[in-house]
């Protein structure tokens, strides 16, 4: 998989994508992540990529032309499955969307800044708009990092134990059960007896019951989504 990220602040996105699982996936050539500085596509002598809003509102708007040039340059080299804009009014990122995105070959993620981007980019170049939550960030870089991390860990081979992504929360609309490690007793706090029993079938049953109980208590609405696509 290849992920191209277009931003005015490459430094902001590089660090989160150079550690842990994402770094390992890059080292194993499971994913290629290329960060592009939008200013490189500006024809302006000061490398400007933003201008005043026609509406007269305070705050700058990212201009069409540099974004058009950046996206077209990438599209001339390969076919993209999705061209994503990070936006607070986009579709909310969830595990299903991450699952879908992890199956694609090439995607672009465009990070907004300032007041946002000229609407004509959204109308003509973007195929998908994603929000990471109902709050406003200063720029799309952290959102792009969140989206990328959630996708990359789903690529087969990215996680050490390949099945472990399947047992994470939200797969099957269930929250993950509690987890424990050694010691079996600390400060008088005990690990549930059943986990020490060595009986795999009973442990599986316990985990499912715990997932159900946790989901009912913390996120009951997830259970309503069972059976939906
Ligand atoms: N004026 C815009 C917000 C601009 S914030 C509005 O009210 O909708 C600047 C940029 O940060 C946006 O263009 C977007 O790319 C990014 N951003 C802000 N909040 C975000 C969120 N919740 N999810 C994804 N991207 C976000």
Supply database-style keywords.
elongated; single chain; Alpha/beta knot; 229 residues; binds S-adenosyl-L-homocysteine; alpha/beta; two-stranded antiparallel ribbon; Trp Operon Repressor, Chain A; 2 domains; 8 helices
Taking the sheet with the most strands, its summary is: 5 strands, parallel
- State the strand order across the main sheet: 2-1-6-5-7
CATH fold-level name of the largest domain:
Alpha/beta knot
Structural class: alpha/beta
Describe this structure in words.
By secondary structure, this protein is α/β, with parallel strands linked by helices. The chain folds into 2 domains: 2-152, Alpha/beta knot; 169-226, Orthogonal Bundle (Trp Operon Repressor, Chain A). Helices cover 32% and strands 18% of the residues. It has 8 helices and 9 strands. It has helices spanning 10-14, 20-27, 64-75, 95-102, 119-124, 141-152, 200-218, 221-224, and strands at 2-7, 32-37, 50-52, 60-62, 82-92, 106-110, 128-131, 185-186, 189-190. The strands form 3 sheets. It has a 5-stranded parallel β-sheet with strand order 2-1-6-5-7. A two-stranded antiparallel sheet has the order 3-4. Helix 4 links the parallel strand 5 and strand 6. Helix 4 (95-102) packs across helix 6. The mean pLDDT is 95. Residues 86-89, 111-113, 115-116, 131-133, 135-137, 139-140, 143 line the site of S-adenosyl-L-homocysteine.
């Amino acid at each position: 998989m290849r992920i191209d990220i277009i931003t005015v602040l490459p430094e902001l996105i590089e660090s989160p994508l150079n550690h842990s699982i994402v770094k390992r996936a890059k080292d194993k050539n499971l994913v290629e992540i290329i960060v592009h500085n939008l200013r490189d596509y500006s024809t302006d002598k000061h490398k400007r990529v933003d201008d005043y809003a026609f509406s007269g509102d305070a705050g700058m708007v990212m201009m069409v032309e540099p974004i058009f040039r950046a996206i077209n340059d990438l599209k001339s080299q390969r076919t993209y499955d999705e061209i994503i804009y990070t936006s607070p009014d986009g579709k909310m990122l969830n595990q299903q969307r991450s699952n879908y995105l992890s199956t694609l070959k090439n995607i672009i993620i465009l990070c907004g800044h300032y007041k946002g981007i000229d609407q004509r980019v959204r109308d003509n170049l973007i195929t998908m708009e994603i929000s990471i939550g109902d709050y406003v960030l200063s720029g799309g870089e952290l959102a792009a990092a969140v989206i990328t991390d959630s996708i990359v860990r789903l690529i087969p081979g990215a996680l050490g134990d390949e099945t472990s992504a399947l047992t994470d929360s939200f797969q099957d609309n269930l929250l993950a059960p509690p987890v424990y490690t050694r010691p079996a007793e600390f400060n008088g706090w005990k690990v549930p007896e059943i986990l020490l029993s060595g009986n795999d079938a009973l442990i599986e049953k316990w985990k499912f019951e715990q997932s159900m109980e946790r989901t009912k208590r913390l996120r009951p609405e997830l259970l309503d989504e069972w059976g939906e696509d």
